[in-house]
Structure formats: structure tokens, C-alpha cells
Amino acid sequence: MARYAYVNGRYVDHREASVHIEDRGYQLADGVYEVVGVRDGKLIDEGLHIDRLDRSLGELRIAWPVARTTLSFVIRELMRRNRLKDGLVYMQVTRGVARRDHAFPTKPVKPAIVLTTKNTKRIEADPGPGIAVKSQRDIRWERCDIKTIALLPNVLAKQAARESGAYEAWLIDADGCVTEGASTNAWIVTQDGELVTRQTDSGILAGITRHTLKSLCNSLQLKLVERPFTLAEAKRAKEAFITSATSFVMPVVKVDGDTVGDGKVGQTAQRLREEYVRFAAAGEPVT
Ligand code: PDD
Fold first, then answer.
1. Structure pTM?
2. For the residues 183-189, what does the mean pLDDT come to?
């Protein structure tokens, strides 16, 4: 269990950490977040995550709560205090505390910032047997590119997946295409060995793991196409996998109960996971 949380300028006992009941994040989901993976004491792609936080804040016109350099310092200090080796750093910024009104507060309020850490098992190159995914209608809004804390459709989709025995939900748009997972990006490998993942626009979150994996695919000279793919195409695919800061590259062996390929972890997904773990292991150490 993490010992400390960072709340609006203070490191506080995690069990006692709290925010104001009129925080706009609590009442209106008026805020954004980031999750940065940590492997063997090293932050993975910190800079890109902070860049995305900056973009999310900008899109919602929420000011930075602290200087960017301060945030970097706080991340490291919290990791140190919590002795975080493997897991994640969660950070959340909301518009702040104000009397409840849907519109932005008329008087300037200070944005609220919270950081926590979570320990997990170290992610290794061996993915185990792979995971099952379950399709769910994508009922989210039209700005899925913003990493907001308003996650109810994602929560419901993930819960439906879990209740069916699947690990992740794959969200399906009005054209029958897979947009992304409830908290991951979705990929397939076609029978011709071509990697496919949906293009980034306002319909999905531009995953940082997705971004880094694109570069790794490039250096491995793997063919990658960014385009929509249907659920039917995913079921006919040779391989499938998901990516995120917390799952790295995780092979998908079942979609809605149908096996993908031979139902075993695919070669490409396995290779990319190994490459990603190598990349994460070489990451920036926390001093
Ligand atoms: N989820 N798509 C969605 C909807 C996500 O919530 C996430 C991340 C991703 C993958 O993005 P990244 O590679 O930057 O982690 C894609 C985080 C891990 C979460 O909500 O816990």
C-alpha cells in the first residue's frame, strides 16, 4: 500500500488524503489525468505523458496547477517516499473547488492536483497465456482524445467484459469498427502480417505506448497501417493485442469467445512485448 499521496502541495498520509467535496472533479468530472508506468524504478516515457497532460489541460482550458519542473520533482519525490519500483504514477488535475455550477467559475480558482502511486508486479517479456476481450458498443463522447476523468462508459464496458470472463472491452463504433479498449489501444496483425491500429483522431486516445510501439515497429521494419478495422476483421486476424502504460503489449487470444489465430500468443505480439520491455528497462532512472 502506498504510504503517501501528494495533494495540492503537500505529501500526506495516503489513508487520510482527501479533496474538497466541492472539487469540480468530484462533482462534474471536470478534470484530466495521466498514468505513467514505472519499471524497475524507471519512469516510462515521462516526457510524452506530461506533454499529453499539457494538451488535455489546454483543450479544457484548465491552467497548470504547478510548474512542469515542479511536477517532475513531485513525481520523483512521491516515488522515493513510496519506494515505488514497479507500478505506476497516477496524476490528476481538476479545475478546482467552486460552488457547483456547470459553467466555469467566474472568479479564478486554483486547479487541484493529486498524485498517487500504485505498486504492481514487474511486467516481464513473458505475457502468459494472453487475454480475452469482449466487444461493447462505444457510447462515449466525441472528444476521446482528451484524457478526462469522465470515464463512466469505460467503466461500464470494462465491467461488462469482466463479468463475461474477459479482461478488456473492445469498443465498437456505429460502423462496426473497433475504436480502442476501455483503457487500452487495440491492434491486430492481418493474415498477411500487416499490423493495423486505428488512426488517432478525436475518436480515440492517442496512447503513449501506441506511439512508442510505432517507432519500435519502424525499427523492426514491420509494416504498420493506421486505419479502422472491424470486429469481424479482428476475429479473422492472425493476431491481436492491446497496449497501454500498465499492460505494455498484451496479446489477445479471444474476441467474444472466438479464438484469434490458433488461440495462442502470436509471434509478432510476443516480439513487440519483448522489445517494449527492453525499451522500458532502458528508460530514465529516477534519481
Ligand atoms: N489508460 N485508450 C484509453 C481509453 C486509455 O484510457 C488508455 C490508458 C489508453 C492507452 O494509453 P497509454 O498507452 O498512454 O497508457 C488508450 C490508462 C492506463 C488508465 O486509464 O489507467
1. 0.97
2. 99
